[in-house]
Sequence to fold (336 residues):
Amino acid sequence: MTTSLSVLDLATVASGSTPAHALRETTEMAVKAEQLGYKRLWVAEHHAMAAVASSAPAVLIAHLASATSRIRLGSGGVMLPNHSPLVIAEQFATLEALHPGRIDLGLGRARGHRPRHRARLAS
Amino acid sequence: MVELIEYLIPRESPPHPAPTPGAGYLPEVWLLGSSTYSAQLAAHLGLPFSFAYHFAPALLDEAVGLYHDTFRPSRFLESPYLMVAASVICAPDELEAQWLAGSNALNLIQRAQGRPGPLPSPDEAAAYTMSASETAFVRDALATHAIGAPEMVTQKLRTLASRTGAQELMISTRVHSLDARVRSFSLLAEEWGSSSPEKKQPELDSRLSSSTL
Fold:
């Protein structure tokens, strides 16, 4: 049985670094992952975590898809309880229209953050 | 979830409102989960399922079993398609891999103590003296991670794949530097070999065709 390998990237913010640098590193990682033959790279939706700069997967996916040409890109995952289904449908249909056949919409049922943040996301 | 998918499937009577772009621009839809409930939901909807073994290792077998046993064919898939997410640190030798894993270990302790921060460097981690209970906590937390030289990591991942029947493994590598991260993925891809047929095949083909010319 052949098993494919893919990448889950959290845009990890290292000590002494910044979220901007973490996002640039994730972009470099996507380019390398494509060169190495990885099937897909997914980015997470985490909120208010100092070590994770990946909070807006659709925005980040759009950037990564422009920096690469073959590797599949997706959300690992969009946390549905945080969002209106219509908005997510529009975001990911837009990605699919711009990068046909390369986009994955991974959906999660958790929220990816603590309750205090939940109220702010919902308001 | 069903509402979201329905916006993107072409149909005779479009939904209201009908997003643009919408119908016909359906990406590959996956359900992610760390529970038996999400496994059953993915099976019920006939969606590919990605299980978060990297943070919910205890439920792996039960969730995967339910996904396979209760799967219903759908417009997306005729048979189950499973991905399992795993934490990996691959380095030229075991000692260095363990050294790099110190970052994640200390970060987990910081989070458990309610003072989460950016990922510490291996030097910062090495300078921290763990209590006995912290050592035990870290040992448990990292027990399911594949940390080591390429052969050992690959062996552990192949065992995971055959245990679950996963078509795909999704690798998460939390290390302090981009160089160590890229090297880990590079060593793993090399050792895995067959994991990159799409990349290797065209290269081989072009070499063959140029040599025949």
About this structure: Chain B touches chain A through 65 residues (CB under 8 Å). The first strand of chain B starts at residue 28 and ends at 33.
